[in-house]
# Entry
Amino acid sequence: MIKEIQARVMLSHVRQPDTWFGLKYNMNIYRGCQHQCIYCDSRSECYRIANFSDVLVKVNAIELLRRELPGKRVRGVIGTGSMSDPYTPVEKTYNLTGQALELFAMYRFPVHIITKSDLVLKDLDTLETINQTQANISFTLTTAAADLAVKVEPGAPRPSARFRAMAKLASHGIHTGVVMMPILPFLEDSKENIQNILKQASDSGATYVIASLGMTLRDRQRAYYYDKLDRLFPGVSDQYRARFGDRYSCPANDVGELREHFQTLCETYHLSTRIDGYRPAGPVSTQLPLFTG
# Structure
């Protein structure tokens, strides 16, 4: 179900330094996500989303951004995609992410978008404008195999569509790469899977990969995930219970060896394991030459 809601604030400050994604500000225009990945941490009780199958649309998001952006005197990277994919299918109808990007271009803010969707290509022209400052587009990929992806990420575009979108962005000079997390123990933590992701990413123009070899599990998220495992991969949840119990951190099997393999592959495919930080050239401009309509 899609529900329209009113938000109070759109941009939140990110605790510094952000060594993972290089963000200064964070934004989530949607709550809940139509991609319905079986492992999503946003189902956890701490995020207070009553039903993650619902998509809550912050219909006043653009109005809030028009008020908030002029007050941000320090230019820094605005990130989106941490709680809900900014290109969940409802974006086709509301275009709130697209409108937000136009404002970021207007105020010359750099962005870092994390998505599982090739729908990002609809905003290619705006992203090219933002890239005059800085634009990073990261595609979440936990497997390159379509048959596995359709089970663990049932509502998301297939990995092949993400690689094609990555190649299109790279061909336009936009910095793109992979967020390779989570890597699901007993399902995705093989050397073959890691190599398939990194090779196809490199072939598609990726320049970096941000990885975490394993996953996290807590409360409501764990219950949902185990239920899906029982339906899709009988017996695997028993392996989780035996190995991890109620622990929050669930590392990949043979994680040390897998990490070494990952590092070797990154060197082979010339992939950085971090994003270059943004260095502001000066205060936020008050001139608005773009998208003034």
Remarks:
- Residues 219-232 form the longest helix (14 residues).
- Confidence is low (pLDDT under 50) at residues 285-293.
- The longest strand covers residues 135-140.
